[in-house]
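Reader question, answered in our methods column.
A reader sent in the components of a multi-part assembly and asked whether the whole thing could be modeled at once rather than chain by chain. We filled in our standard form and ran it. Here is what they sent:
COMPLEX SIZE: two components
ENTRIES:
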Amino acid sequence: MTGPQIILRLDENGRIYRPGDTLTGEYRMMAVDRQEVKSLEVSVLWYTEGKGDEDMRVHYFRRLSTEDGDWIDPRRPGRFTTVLPNSPLSYDGRIVKVRWCVRVRVFLKRNREVVGQRLFRLGDIPTAKTLATSRS
Amino acid sequence: MARTFRYFEKKRGHRRTGSKTLAIAGEVVFFTVFLVGGVAGLIVLYNTLLVPQWRANTEFVAHRCVVRDKHVGEKPSDDGPLYRPEIQIEYTLNDERFVIWTYDIWVFDHTGGFSPGKDDKLAILADYEIGREYRCWYDPDDPSRAVLVRTSRWWIGLIFILPISFVLMGAGRLVYLLFFVGKSAERRSAFAQKAAKLAPFDGNGRTTEEFPAIPAGGNLTDSPGTTLTYRLPVAASPSWATAAAIVTALIWNGLVAWLLVVAVRGFLRGRPDWLLTLFVIAFTAGGVLLLIHAARRVMVATGVGPTLLEVSQQPLRPGHPFQLFISQTGRLHLQKFEVRLVCEEEAAFRHGTNTRKESCCVLEETVLTREDFEVVRGTPYEVECEIQLPEHAMHSFKSAHNEIAWRFVVRGHLAGWPDYERSFPVLVYPNQSDNGTS
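And here is the structure of the entire assembly that came back:
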């Protein structure tokens, strides 16, 4: 038996997004009882990976809460849509990496929470390599 | 069955470990102690310092008294004797006669109003003549308390800084915890962004709304060039670095000189300290190296003239050509002069209680190289060239702990002189084909 989980799908699965593009998709909650759900947060964000401490910034954030009267039905898929910003672009450096993702966090009763995350690429920056070309 | 509360969590690389719940509980207790301690301190100070002074200055009733005796009171302390003026006065209130020793309100304080220095107290006593009538103020709640002077000690306010800082630290952190505990990292980030938008000014280190996570770089575009549009600022002023090198060398060698004197005295007295001598030899070697380093910096700072770099556009765009103007002044024989374009990643991370930084060069491109030539005073070496960043190069990026920085590095190899290197930061925005704008 598997526990609660969140499935995320992007409408244009796998493509590289460009700044200004519209990111759309949907999330589904699996094995989650409606009575158990307290609130839900959908975020589109970037975060850093690598040698340094992690930095994170949310580009899009939406929160639904049953306490605020929002209707959260785990049986029905939820949708999200946002226009992507100009920066930062996804980057796979040597000690600094910038990742973009859609993250859905569902808060359940008894302080439990379920998180689902789906990475995507913004921009087409190649992997960092040390170049030493000479032009004079 | 999964536990909802864990004392310890698994370690994930170098990231934070431990139970979040326990950490928050610990933080709440710690800062509550700060807050309660601060409030208690404030109450005690208010009642013992402010209230007596305020009552003496405003509520005590004016009256007449006769000075009967006077002397300087003395009290021993660890830092030497302490003194206070003590004046015996006599006054009558409602047919009741009072004879007390007093001066100001602090005589009735638990410290007794004692302080160092006898002369100023003698000077105070000189102002009062035995047998003469003076004005005094008595406490209407306790007529046996009276003062000859009303004083205001302004520096009492400074004592309040400590408990107030405790209250601010404790209350500030508790409010933060109250507001953010139980909130997700995303929600906290969204809230912080909303708060940042309300900030009334936009500093140089801040990013712009149109290009998030890219430094605004106000200081990179506020200086117009003489040949091209923008003159680039130098990353670190060479004069500061030279001054730091000189001061370090002087302090180090000053300490070495003192140790040297101690060591030589030992030899002269016939009791040499060999361990100290070994230390002095090693430290002297270090001192000589520091002096050489400082001397080289002074030579470069005074002998090599300013290097000027100007660009035709700022911020730069990958794949788009731009003009670069370089000017080197001074009176030099340059064996090699090169200008490189460098992209560096920089990461800051916590290692125990320290914050460390690590950098890594991911792109280094030689823009210009010239060998074996003279720069004559009054006729700077000037060159203008066209450059293009790689089409899909990463843009400048800055977050709290991570950075991707672009800069031009000018390096000169001088005949018979130490080499010099100067760095000029530039701003790189995303390629227009990457960001979808035209």
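What stands out: Chain A touches chain B through 51 residues (CB under 8 Å). The beta strands of chain A are 5-10, 22-30, 37-50, 56-65, 78-83, 91-92, 96-108, 113-120.
Send us your own complexes using the same form.
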